[in-house]
Amino acid sequence: MNAKRIVVIGLLFGLACVAWSQRRGFGRFSRQGDVPALAKSDAEKKVLATLDQAQRGGEMFQNVPVSDGRILRILAETAGAKNAVEIGTSTGLSGMWLSLALRETGGKLTTFEMDRGRAATARSNFKAAGVDHLVTIVEGDAHKTISRLKEPIDLVFIDADKEGYLDYLNKLLPLVRPGGLILAHNVETAPDYVRAVTTNPELETVFAGDGGGLGVTLKKH
Amino acid sequence: MTFQQIPMLGLARRIRRALRGPNRLGEAPALAASEAERRVLAILDEAQKSGRTFRSVPATDGRILRLLAEATGAQKVVEIGTSTGLSGMWLGLALMRTGGKLITFENDPGRAAVARAHFQRAGIDSLITIIEGDAHETISSLEGPIDLLFLDGDKPGYADYLTRLLPLVRPGGLILAHNMNLAPTYAKAITSDPGLETVLAGHEKQLGITLKKR
């Protein structure tokens, strides 16, 4: 009886080992976190080091995961973003990813945050990363404060109150330039937003990032 | 008989899908904003349903191609591996809007002919040049700057295409690679160069999206 049990446990352990090693082996290039973002310059190194430190800090407050941050950077840079807008600064991780692009495109970020504590943390993160001159944090209820935005927007990133996504979309879409992008984090929890971006023929939407929760919407030219 | 043809299983699938909502790409179809777009989407739909797609990109990846080409304002797109032209049609949707052109390379004359017919019927043949022959040789005729490069040819050749075409890609431009998981040498090259940033997206996360940093 005991010997049987040991054999069964041994077999299960063996199976687990095989499963784990295959996952590691086959997953080598299928998961973005496996290969870290590399710095091209000292300025990039400074941003990535601050990001790394903030991610290890634990106090994440629902920030974007690294894989989504890297998508933000790629999209902002390839779109040549001059004017990026973010709803939901949190502690500034996504802002730092966007800044990696904005440093190169000569762009700037206007980011909205309701919580003073998080805004303060974000401010010190931006400073430590050396990108504070690229970022303006606007505190208060973004549903009201975004009315101050007037210029054409190249890229919008929505990462705030999920029930507010549709209102943000309705208010900001007219400002997004043709060919511009609207990104939204955790869209699976904002079904009315998803419906709006997938039923408008003037928009094209794909889902990317960890678990497909990053909605990427193009405003067609 | 497939699973879908068994009525009860098909029903269960539909219910599951309805409960899950339209959160997943592909469930909400690509919509046309104009007659020209409608024409391209109709040909794409027909080609996909024909089943003879010869390892062409799935719609999920095609829509990403279109979105990226349009967001980057592509004037010049280069594709290695035309196949029957499905990815070319997705790219064509963007190029109609950006005023750009596609140069696409195909080794197989049969597939090139099918692609040519697709492009013509989709009304985008004026935007596309198909170059037949071994792309490893014919790409030497290319000139930069390239805004977007899409690799979907022979997987062992990805690294060679990258080495030769990366210098022609403009800073801020994109290199996309279909089935990147099947090209480990390429994957290693693009994830170890600090001048590049790469993420994986699309169908089964096998579409490599690489930015050439400015």
Give a nutshell description of this structure.
With 221 residues, chain A is an alpha/beta fold. Chain A has helices at 2-26, 42-56, 66-78, 93-105, 116-129, 142-145, 165-172, 191-199; strands spanning 83-87, 108-113, 135-139, 153-158, 176-184, 203-208, 214-219.
Characterization of this structure:
The complex is a heterodimer of chains A (221) and B (214). Chain A has 2 domains: 2-30; 34-219, Rossmann fold (3-Layer(aba) Sandwich). Chain A is 46% helix and 19% strand. Chain A is built from 8 helices and 7 strands; from the N terminus they run αααβαβαβαβαβαββ. In chain A, strand 4 (153-158), helix 7 (165-172) and strand 5 form a beta-alpha-beta unit. The longest helix of chain A is centred in the N-terminal third of the chain and has 25 residues, at 2-26. Chain B is an alpha/beta fold. Chain B has a single domain (9-212), classed as Rossmann fold. Chain B is 42% helix and 21% strand. Chain B is built from 8 helices and 7 strands; from the N terminus they run H-H-H-E-H-E-H-E-H-E-H-E-H-E-E. In chain B, a hairpin with a 5-residue loop joins strand 6 and strand 7. Residues 1-9 of chain B have low confidence and may be disordered. At the A-B interface, helix 3, strand 5, helix 8 and strand 6 of A face helix 3, strand 5, helix 8 and strand 6 of B.
